[in-house]
Design brief:
Blueprint: E1 4-8, H1 13-18, E2 26-31, E3 42-45, H2 51-58, E4 63-66, H3 77-97, E5 102-108, H4 113-118, H5 134-153, E6 156-162, H6 181-193, E7 198-203, H7 215-221
The structure holds nicotinamide-adenine-dinucleotide (NAD).
């Protein structure tokens, strides 16, 4: 089914890997940096916290795929607050107000990072958030506020706790959480189409060394990953750990 999709963070690294998986849809691309042209997609440039821009961005949109944000686990609260907290809440408000059906958004394995540090594996989707850094805490907030919009405003929200989302894993620490491009596209397509109205799911490939339970994503999103970081294990830099999320000081 062809849908009208708004993709935020469209100039970023994850969007670059995802976009070929959205070609059947009518796309509108938003970023604070000019996104590269993509077929007939409409391009919007500006800040998530600009309410006029957001109103134009969500007008007539069926599904938002929200990737805009600060992706750095070492970012400070001041750096994170605008893009990851205020921007996401503003986006959800605009989506609810303008009749958007669903928002699929990028959370992160860092929202559950303390479980990984503790060796409580595989990390289960339904456990309480346990962030390992301010970045992970903003993602846990995003999951919470998305739940409020789903419950109180009838806006369907599906959160994906993305692992290391790169064309190939680059370091040993990424082998446990790697999400390869084809699996990213499968997962987002499943999140766009599922009949489940609300949920938050670990989002990795089917890694032999995986630390994240993919059962709920398989059941609810029809996710059938085909990639395994083990195929690249001989090529990665050894950074001394199997843990993707933050190490304790
Ligand atoms: N890359 C990964 O491995 C990874 C892992 C887990 C989660 N994520 C999440 O996925 C999303 C995308 O990550 P990425 O690696 O592509 O990051 P990126 O920095 O490459 O892309 C993010 C994009 O968002 C835009 N942006 C940031 N703040 C904005 C704002 N206030 N208004 C408008 N645009 C804004 C940036 O200009 C950038 O193009 C982020 O939410 C990140 O937290 C990424």
């Amino acid at each position: 089914m062809t849908r009208r999709i708004l993709l935020t963070g469209a100039a970023g690294r994850v969007a670059h890997q995802l976009l070929p998986g959205l070609d059947e849809h009518e796309l509108r691309l938003l970023d604070r940096s000019e996104p590269p042209p993509h077929g007939d997609a409409q391009l919007l440039v500006g800040e998530l916290t600009d309410r006029d821009l957001l109103a134009r961005a969500v007008e007539g949109i069926d599904t938002v795929v929200h990737l805009a944000g600060d992706p750095s686990p070492s970012a400070t609260w001041d750096e994170l607050r605008g893009p990851n907290v205020d921007g996401f809440a503003a986006l959800l408000g605009a989506a609810a107000e303008h009749g958007v059906r669903r928002v699929v958004y990028a959370s992160s394995v860092h929202a559950m990072g303390r479980y990984e540090s503790d060796g409580a594996l595989p990390v289960q989707a339904h456990w309480a958030p346990a962030p390992c850094c301010p970045y992970g805490a903003t993602k846990a907030f995003d999951e919470a506020v998305a739940g409020v919009f789903a419950d109180r405003r009838g806006l369907s929200t599906i959160g994906l706790r993305l692992g290391a989302t790169t064309p190939v894993p680059e370091q040993r620490s990424q082998l446990s959480s790697w999400l390869g491009p084809e699996d990213l596209r499968r997962l987002v397509r499943g999140a766009v189409e599922t009949e489940v109205p609300f949920g938050v799911y670990p989002a990795t490939s089917a890694n032999t060394r995986g630390h994240w339970d993919l059962g709920p994503a398989r059941a609810d999103l029809g996710y059938e990953p085909t990639l395994d970081s083990a195929a690249h294990a001989g090529e990665v830099e050894d950074d001394g750990t199997d843990v993707t999320t933050c190490r304790r000081p």
